Amino acid sequence: MKDIESYERLLLQNKAWVEQRNNEDKDFFKRLSSQQTPDFLWIGCSDSRVPANQITGTDPGEVFVHRNIANMVNHTDMSMLSVLDYAVNVLEVKHVVVCGHYGCGGVLAAMANKQIGLIDNWIRHIKDVYRMHQDELEAISDMKERTDRFIELNVIEQVYDLGKTSIIQNAWQKRGAPAVHGWVYDIRNGLIKDLKVSMHSDEEMPDVYKFEKNPPPAGS
User: Fold this and answer.
1) Are 188 and 101 in contact (CB under 8 A)?
2) Which residues belong to the active site?
């Protein structure tokens, strides 16, 4: 019975939200339904405590969102790549934000050796980040500080991985955008930390990851 009541509570809260919105702005839903022109793509964690719009104080329609476990940018993830391509090439967003969060369960799982199930195959990509930064991380004796730093490093690597995609590089060449940023949200106080790793071009990337300029047309 409680499950049914909880389910129905969401519907009631939806009606209350609509009423509140209409009272504040009678044309809100009319404008929202007519077009989608967000400036931001948000790649965040699936964690229910990290909702993009609420923690950034933005309205529906302002942020295009993709979420997965531990905010990963995997180059074989067609869901993420499809969202990225649509956001960058159709919506022409100005910014792409990778936002992790302290206390991330996916990162914590990657630091352990316990088998969980199918998700182990996803977590392996996070373990790769640990391996890349193992010396720095294991020099941190305090486990909370080590975990927090691992979470930051994971976000930083995802920013770099976005820069390695043809989607982002072609957009940089074509229109000089979007900028790519790395943030971490602190659930303990609600604040977002900018990791200061923004990328605006491929200048800071190793040459091996850079695609040729003005590639030949498809099929040629």
Assistant:
1) no
2) 45, 47, 49, 101, 104
